[in-house]
Specification:
It is built from 9 helices and 23 strands. It is of the alpha+beta class. The strands form 6 sheets. Strands 5, 6, 7, 14, 15, 16, 17, 18 and 21 form a 9-stranded mixed sheet that branches. The chain has a 3-stranded parallel sheet with strand order 1-2-9. Helix 1 runs parallel beside helix 7. The longest helix is centred in the C-terminal third of the chain and has 29 residues. It is globular, with a radius of gyration of 21 Å.
């Protein structure tokens, strides 16, 4: 199994010549394949992992996927746990209803979300993959071509030692929003790009003791003039806000002044890193071509809002590996693989994509209500953690991302099974 990776377009800065680097969806997919006993080769075209400031919040469902693949404990050790997601009106400082993840205690062993920047997450995933499949990650290897046959695929790779051909059963394209594999297959991407861009800034500042804050470590400040998101990362505070069309990228002095206008005239504030990226809602019109599958940003480019970018890609990494394992073991025929796109594409197009658009309207105060915030304390926590995704497993169009109610509901077809402790013969165990 070959998994080419590259940095996603949604994380690409429009300033400077930053090189494309592999992202976490390919690494998590590889961990999933190894978990199911499939030999894997990961080709990353750069010679090192990302150093850029990128996505930073990992939702509960992603933690569960990482746990299934044996990587959760390593990721949790490098992360900051979040039990409250704040919703605050920036103009008045009035707090709205927070999302309390403790409401998930009856549904999951991980009733929280975590903050970890992508350039810290990728090395953890790479190291874990190296432990379980030594030598499977090939840095400085760029996929340049492929040739499909009835029972295999040959992939041409440009490596530091020169060109070589690698044979595998399938090719999984995790090569980002500007996917060259998708382009080579002639697969179109449908959707739009907003004129607005996002400015992401990492700041070194003490907002706990020297300058006590009155908002949680993950807080959304809505405002019709300029909304702001504050995220406490293990090593810094992260600010994210919109740049209007035509607005130039601010320099570090301007960013420092903007942060001080928001958090006060604090001492010791220092800009650690910045990134400006465009706002997309674009989805490939097909996700498979024979033995090649599109995954993550190569299949759906959803600019993060409410952490729906990376975490939507991890849903792909949860859905496809087990299908490939069943087919390779002879337990199912190729038709099982068709369910991957059928189940995941609605979640990306009409689920994460539309929810991200609604969240932007909510943050801009163009809309006072979002369905994802109207389902009761339990329902909102399940929705915002991505535990509420119901897949269209039988092709009837019955899928959802939004849960409702104040208590756990009966599990239905396509729902995720609760991941909670169970007991049998007086011996503790865990639900699968």
């Amino acid at each position: 199994m070959t998994v080419p990776t590259r940095r996603s377009e949604s994380d690409a800065s429009e300033s400077g010549d930053r090189r494309r680097r592999g992202g976490p969806v390919g690494l998590i997919t590889a961990l999933g394949l190894v978990h199911y006993g499939i030999e894997v080769a990961v080709f990353e075209e750069d010679d090192q992992l990302s150093l850029d400031t990128k996505a930073g919040t990992v939702l509960t469902r992603t933690v569960e996927v990482l746990d299934r693949y044996g990587a959760a404990q390593d990721v949790l050790a490098a992360s900051l746990r979040i039990d409250e997601i704040g919703d605050i009106d920036r103009a008045t400082g009035t707090a709205r209803a927070s999302v309390y993840t403790g409401a998930l205690a009856g549904d999951t062993r991980f009733p929280f979300v975590i903050n970890i920047p992508q350039h810290h997450l990728e090395p953890v995933l790479r190291d874990r993959l190296e432990q379980v499949a030594p030598g499977s990650v090939h840095m400085g290897h760029r996929v340049t071509g492929f040739s499909q046959s009835a029972d295999h695929i040959d992939v041409t790779v440009e490596s530091p030692e020169g060109a070589k051909t690698v044979r595998g059963s399938y090719l999984l394209a995790c090569d980002g929003g500007r996917s060259q594999l998708r382009e080579a297959l002639g697969i179109a991407v449908e959707g739009h790009t907003l004129a607005q861009r996002y400015m992401l800034v990492d700041l070194e500042v003490d907002l706990d003791e020297a300058n006590p804050r009155d908002y949680p470590y993950l807080a959304y400040f809505g405002d019709p003039r300029e909304w702001m998101i504050l995220v406490r990362q293990p090593h810094c505070w992260r600010f994210l806000y919109p740049l209007e069309p035509g607005q130039p990228e601010p320099d570090r002095a301007e960013l420092t002044a903007k942060a001080q206008r928001f958090i006060g005239d604090v001492d010791g504030l220092r800009v650690l890193g910045t990134n400006v990226y465009p706002v997309h809602q674009r989805v490939a019109n097909r996700w498979r071509d024979g033995r090649i599958f599109l995954m993550g940003d190569a299949a759906h480019l959803i600019t993060p809002m409410w952490a729906l970018g990376l975490n939507t890609g991890v849903l792909d990494a949860s859905n496809l590996p087990w299908r490939l394992a069943w087919v390779l073991r002879g337990w199912a025929d190729q038709r099982l693989l068709d369910g991957y796109e059928r189940e995941q594409s609605p979640v990306a197009i009409r689920g994460s994509g539309e929810m991200a658009e609604a969240a932007r309207a909510y943050m801009d105060r163009r809309s006072s209500e979002v369905s994802a915030m109207a389902g009761g304390r339990w329902g909102v926590a399940v929705t915002r953690s991505l535990l509420g995704v119901r897949l269209d497993v039988d092709g009837r169009g019955d899928w959802s991302m939004i849960a409702s109610g104040d208590a756990p509901q009966p599990v239905g077809t396509g729902d995720r099974l609760p991941d909670v402790p169970v007991f049998r013969s007086a011996r503790p165990g865990l639900a699968a």
